[in-house]
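User: Hey, my collaborator sent me this sequence without any context and asked if I could get a structure. I don't really work with proteins. Can you help?
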Amino acid sequence: MNKETIFLTKEGHALMQTELELAKKILYEEIPEKLKASKINGGDLRENKEYMYLQSEQQYYEREVRRLTSIMEAAEIIPDEEISGEEIGVGSGFILQDVEIRESGTFTLVSPAEVDLENNKISIASPVGTALIGKREGDDVKVDLPWGTTHFRVITINKRA
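Assistant: No problem. I've predicted the 3D structure and written it out in structure-token form, which is a compact way to encode the shape of the chain:
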């Protein structure tokens, strides 16, 4: 099976590596210890709510380890020198202004695997991300969103946000 390459920033790769290591530690060290203790102390396993909860937690971490491993296997780190300061692309940091309400924010364009809306990291696959690829400082962008068309202006582009 030929996997599609997932482009990650250096930061995103390091963060995912850390998340994978933590998930493996929880899955292979912490949960088995808790399951063993719960099995010993909890009586009948069919009625042991802690044991059942730990089993569902184990299943969650199994899926998370598979997901993160899959991403890491397909990942290619974008070299800093390939991140443009002239036009928006994966890894670019930029200030974007909503033209209508005159509010602006600092964002970073990332691959879907790195999206973190709380830290203003938006996906290249999102409607806004797709519209911004290749834009330069001063460019206006119209984006059709589910609630209507929004107008943005690219104020500044940095190699890193």
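In plain terms: The chain has two domains: 6-77, 80-158. You can pass these tokens on to your collaborator as they are.
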